[in-house]
Amino acid sequence: MSVLAGVMLASSSVASSDIVENNSFIKNRIFKHNVLKCLNEVRQHDYLNYIIPIFNQKKIPYEFVYLPVIESCFDPAAESNKGAIGMWQINDITAKHLNLDTGIVIDERYNWKKSTHAAAEYLLFLKQRFDTWTHVLAAYNVGPTYLRDQIEKHNTTQLNKLQLPKETVDYVHKFVAMIYILRNDSKRKK
User: Fold this and answer.
1) Which end of the chain has the lower number of beta carbons within 10 A, N or C?
2) Which residues of the chain have pLDDT under 70?
3) CATH number of the domain located at residue range(s) 3-184 in this protein
4) CA 73 → CA 79, 86, 87, 104, 187, distances in Å?
């Protein structure tokens, strides 16, 4: 099952038709333009040829190779206002957990190959803690402790019933919209 189908069908957090029909990012021209622009950028580099085999080997759903589209537009030098760095937007705490150097001279989060391996390991770490890839996606954004606390506090795994930051809710919807846009773009080009 693809992640899009998994997010839409297997997740108890949203109804299958709602995630697409009520997803404002799918119809947002600026978002679509940015997704397609990032896809064109990534085609000019060798990123996907490196990322895909790593994710395949670890059995991470194919769609996750495109996570950097919404994280950084595949920019290895990207820096968020919250201190996340690199193509995969890894923060200090996660970098330490993944044994990435974050020193002043060398910060391995800028190394897209090392951070790709680290991101794959982190996604697997999250998948061991959460049942669905939708929850993995939310935890990648908000952090596993926060998500677990919300699940326990509200006694539900339904994302729409948890008190998640708007940024996290949007993050999940952006990912689904991105996959929807990429699939429709590839169908259009055939």
Assistant:
1) C
2) 1-21, 186-190
3) 1.10.530.10
4) 12, 10, 7, 24, 22
